[in-house]
């Protein structure tokens, strides 16, 4: 039993809980997930089962999409509406659409972002949220993330909310984005709703619910090859198939690295259309090196 699951995580369930559910339903211990979702958030959570769990790390670099609601007038220590209120603004004027869209444009592209302290981000090997619970002050450095697009869907002056869609790179925290955009508007803000609508090729419209998982069982498993298509394909000499499956490198002096200047180029390796696993091209030694072999030796 192996494959990916496009799981629809409901609010209130942790990503770890989702993995435990899949283990119980499918009776398979080798299960992992990509792209942790906060317990209060819902949406797409890719889960890998069996040998496919070895491929989960290759989903880390794909883009993600979210639909989020931003509540103006309130800021919390966690960045969402479950946290402790740290700032409150009662009398303020809701910004007009032109101002909101101007701020959205300013936050589109490569930006600096400080992840929220109430998160699973590691500080010296320990999760920031765990340190906070122990009363240890957390200082998280900023990092660069890519906001591919921001689209305003609705501005509700009565509820004092902005509903928007965002496409972004891995490592982007929508809670931090809401707080930062609120500061740019001059109004304390927090995230009041979040649903992840896509992780790479995993789409919300195709995600399976808890009930569907229990009903269909292994029928929900997807072919993992279809979801790692962002990795370059490489066709190895069929005579080197068994060598690759045995963990042996293969020379390739004619490999075209294209515009990529990296010394290590990750590859999906095939032999006559049979998916063997993940390898990489070692530019220095001009060899194809196996990393994660899924096929068995013949």
TrEMBL record:
<comment type="function">
    <text>Responsible for synthesis of pseudouridine from uracil-55 in the psi GC loop of transfer RNAs.</text>
</comment>
<dbReference type="InterPro" id="IPR020103">
    <property type="entry name" value="PsdUridine_synth_cat_dom_sf"/>
</dbReference>
<protein>
    <recommendedName>
        <fullName>tRNA pseudouridine synthase B</fullName>
        <ecNumber>5.4.99.25</ecNumber>
    </recommendedName>
</protein>
<dbReference type="InterPro" id="IPR032819">
    <property type="entry name" value="TruB_C"/>
</dbReference>
<feature type="domain" description="Pseudouridine synthase II N-terminal">
    <location>
        <begin position="23"/>
        <end position="174"/>
    </location>
</feature>
<feature type="active site" description="Nucleophile">
    <location>
        <position position="38"/>
    </location>
</feature>
<dbReference type="GO" id="GO:0031119">
    <property type="term" value="P:tRNA pseudouridine synthesis"/>
</dbReference>
<keyword id="KW-0413">Isomerase</keyword>
<dbReference type="InterPro" id="IPR002501">
    <property type="entry name" value="PsdUridine_synth_N"/>
</dbReference>
<dbReference type="GO" id="GO:0003723">
    <property type="term" value="F:RNA binding"/>
</dbReference>
<keyword id="KW-0819">tRNA processing</keyword>
<feature type="domain" description="tRNA pseudouridylate synthase B C-terminal">
    <location>
        <begin position="175"/>
        <end position="215"/>
    </location>
</feature>
<dbReference type="Pfam" id="PF16198">
    <property type="entry name" value="TruB_C_2"/>
</dbReference>
<dbReference type="Pfam" id="PF01509">
    <property type="entry name" value="TruB_N"/>
</dbReference>
<dbReference type="InterPro" id="IPR014780">
    <property type="entry name" value="tRNA_psdUridine_synth_TruB"/>
</dbReference>
<comment type="similarity">
    <text>Belongs to the pseudouridine synthase TruB family. Type 1 subfamily.</text>
</comment>
<dbReference type="GO" id="GO:0160148">
    <property type="term" value="F:tRNA pseudouridine(55) synthase activity"/>
</dbReference>
<dbReference type="GO" id="GO:1990481">
    <property type="term" value="P:mRNA pseudouridine synthesis"/>
</dbReference>
């Amino acid at each position: 039993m192996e494959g990916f699951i496009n799981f629809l995580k409901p609010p209130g369930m942790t990503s770890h809980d989702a993995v435990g559910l899949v283990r119980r339903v499918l009776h398979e211990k080798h299960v992992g997930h990509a792209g942790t979702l906060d317990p209060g958030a819902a949406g797409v959570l890719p889960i890998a089962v069996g040998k496919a769990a070895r491929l989960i790390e290759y989903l880390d670099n794909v883009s993600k999409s979210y639909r989020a609601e931003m509540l103006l007038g309130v800021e919390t220590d966690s960045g969402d509406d479950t946290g402790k209120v740290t700032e409150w603004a009662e009398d303020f004027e809701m910004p007009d659409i032109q101002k909101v869209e101007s701020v959205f444009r300013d936050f589109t592209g490569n930006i600096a972002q400080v992840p929220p302290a109430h998160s699973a981000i590691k500080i010296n090997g320990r999760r920031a949220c765990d340190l906070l619970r122990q009363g240890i002050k957390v200082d998280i450095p900023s990092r660069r993330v890519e906001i591919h697009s921001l689209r305003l869907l609705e501005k509700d002056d009565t509820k004092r909310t902005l509903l928007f869609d965002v496409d972004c790179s891995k490592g982007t925290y929508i809670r931090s984005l809401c707080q930062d955009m609120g500061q740019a508007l001059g109004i304390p803000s927090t995230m009041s709703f979040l649903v992840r609508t896509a992780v790479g090729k995993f789409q919300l419209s195709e995600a399976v619910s808890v009930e569907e998982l229990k009903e269909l069982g292994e029928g929900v498993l997807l072919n993992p090859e279809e979801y790692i298509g962002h990795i370059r394909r490489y066709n190895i000499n069929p005579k080197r198939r068994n060598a690759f499956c045995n963990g042996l490198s293969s020379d390739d002096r004619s490999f075209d690295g294209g515009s990529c200047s990296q010394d290590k180029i990750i590859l999906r390796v095939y032999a006559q259309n049979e998916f063997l696993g993940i390898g990489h091209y070692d530019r220095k030694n001009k060899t194809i090196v196996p990393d994660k072999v899924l096929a068995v030796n013949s």
